[in-house]
Amino acid sequence: MKYQNHPYTYVGNVHLLVKDLHRSMTFYKEVIGFTILEQTEKKAALSADGKTVLLTIEQPEVIIEKQPRTTGLYHFALLLPTRADLGNVLLHLLQSGYPLQGASNHGVSEAIYLGDPDGNGIEIYADTPEEEWIWQDNHVQMITESMDAEGVLASRISDTWNGLPVGTVMGHIHLHVSDLVKAEEFYIKVLGFDVVLRYGAQALFISTGNYHHHIGLNTWAGVGAPAPTKNSLGLKTFTLHYPAIETLQTALANLKELGAYLTEDNGSYITQDPSGNVIRLYV
């Protein structure tokens, strides 16, 4: 996908902690359509193309139920190559009987929403044609209307379900944060993103290269919401891929100047935002 590739900074692997690895693997294979790329007794790496890890699920030795009204994952979003692929996924989900949480037209995209067995939010979406996105003063217009489900279903070119299409990528991630001002300063001034939409005083959408959003940030869990306890169900880390060593080095220098937590780990760098969301930084 154009905006989930060089020369943009974009979201890669999302790493979740789950209560029951076998249950989650069954869900992500049979309902969502991932393939298992790697598997151990307590961890599995999931892929759409058999090469790229988009989602890692892990069952810790001790797992803690996620407390309500904490920071962390709102949803991760899988971007499909075409509207026809979205129609295929929608038909499969309807036939599976798995409960959906919603289906929306956002102007820039059409999206299906559901939750995994641990309550982790999932969006599966397809972008509308880029030339139809409406921009004003470097801000994109996004709406929330009911999705034309019949139109999406009619767009499919096959009734056969073969799992997620090979071109599926991690389109974006949406996070609960405790303070939107601090989050904006961190992701914009430190990590190098741009604001593309302000949703009142409670949500912010940011990206690189004028994508409609690579990251969503909101305070819907409450201003001042605490970070979840370690080993709580939900988000463990997510990855940001930088397009060049120079852009990554700029972000690392900004993190050091800020005095933010930063450590190197096997070729990547680990930091966390002001709300405790842990991020891996790669080139």
Give a description of the structure.
It is a single chain. This protein has 283 residues and is of the alpha+beta class. It has a single domain, classed as 2,3-Dihydroxybiphenyl 1,2-Dioxygenase, domain 1 (Roll), CATH 3.10.180.10. The chain is built from five helices and 19 strands. It has helices at residues 21-32, 83-96, 149-154, 180-190, 245-258, and strands at 10-17, 35-39, 43-47, 53-58, 72-79, 102-105, 109-115, 121-127, 135-136, 139-140, 145-146, 169-176, 194-199, 203-207, 215-218, 234-241, 262-265, 268-272, 278-282. It has a nine-stranded mixed β-sheet, covered by helices on one side. The protein has an eight-stranded mixed β-sheet with strand order 2-3-4-1-16-19-18-17, with helices on one face. A hairpin with a 2-residue loop joins strand 9 (135-136) and strand 10. The radius of gyration is 18 Å and the shape is globular. The chain starts with 9 loop residues before the first strand and ends with a strand. GO terms for molecular function: lactoylglutathione lyase activity; metal ion binding. Residues 10-127, 169-283 form the VOC domain. This is VOC family protein.
